[in-house]
Amino acid sequence: MPATPERYLEVQNSEEFGRLRQTLRKFIFPTTIAFILWYALYVLLSAYARDFMAVKLIGNINVALLFGLLQFVSTFLIAWYYARFAARQVDPVADDIYQDIEGRATAGADEGRTV
């Protein structure tokens, strides 16, 4: 028997779920802000600092190309770091919460059975 809507509300209001949300927020908000600022810097420099972005570094590779490629690198690094962070700090807590919900739902279904 699946958990009831009341059980989900109870879990949502629990201290453990609140800590899980806080842990996620402490990672997601600063990382998102940092990435948006990094991207905005790239866009603003491309629009208003054309001479700087046109500086050649090696052969035909200029600052603008390097910054553009670093956008991809930073995206993949953030994804990798989030996966590592989630596996260590988010998933175990989320699994515990899920097992608690499923455990109580199963226990409630077993109590209603007659043998």
TrEMBL record:
Give yes or no: UniProt keyword DNA repair. Answer: no
Q: Which UniProt keywords are listed? A: Membrane, Transmembrane, Transmembrane helix
- Asked whether the keyword Transmembrane helix is assigned, the reply is yes
For this protein, the record's Pfam families field holds: DUF485
Q: Which InterPro entries match?
A: DUF485
Where does the sequence pass through the membrane? 27-49, 61-83
Protein name from the UniProt record: Membrane protein
UniProt source species: Actinoplanes siamensis
